[in-house]
Design a protein that fits this description.
By secondary structure, the chain is mainly alpha-helical. The chain contains seven helices and six strands, in the order ααβββααααβββα. It has one domain. The chain is globular. The termini are far apart.
Amino acid sequence: MMDSPNLYLYILFFSVILPFLWSFESKMVAYSKSFAPLLVSTLIVGSFFIIWDIIFTHKGIWGFNPRYLSGIYFFNLPLGEWLFFLIIPFCSIFIYRVFNYFRKSPVLENSHHYISYFLIGFSIVLALIYYDRSYTFITFVLLASLIYLHVKVLKTKWMGRFYVSYLFVLIPFSIVNGILTGSFIEDQVVWYNNFENMGIRIGTIPFEDAFYGMILILGITSLYEYFGTRWNMEYAQESRTE
């Protein structure tokens, strides 16, 4: 299986199967009840990332090894890559929702601002140093901008919960991304042009990937919280009028 042309699809299937099956329990997390706001949020943010992906693939900043692909492409992206932007957010928000269920008290209530300011500063410094590396520069500019938006404009209160839950997300993310970038297999499913990134790898994973993932999941979490709140309010109003 590790040398299969469907390896990318297998990785995604085994990533999503347990969260998907657990989604339909109704006594605890009840994840399935939030599928509507989750889908809308994922499609909006995922569309931006797909466009980013198409451009970077066209420019050779990264690409895909046909050895591990099904052969089905849309706009020069393999099927697995399209599904990545549905399945990985699905699993990540599942972890976020589970964390929120089991930890109802405030998380990093008085310190998440310091984490945000550190990440903003850290991102700006790396963007300035690696201004000529497309993947690095764009990733850290977007991350700094998104976190700044939450801290200074939206004044988001759940950032502490997001930061902690994202640490848990990084565990399966590292396994999945590790395989995609060459861990445990002979070649790489996804390759990167090191002239367009820092050239630093954690195992086989480019350093930027963890922060790229943070932009993706934070963007979807933002809309998920927004649409989920509105969805619940509308549902409550409908229930009162019945």
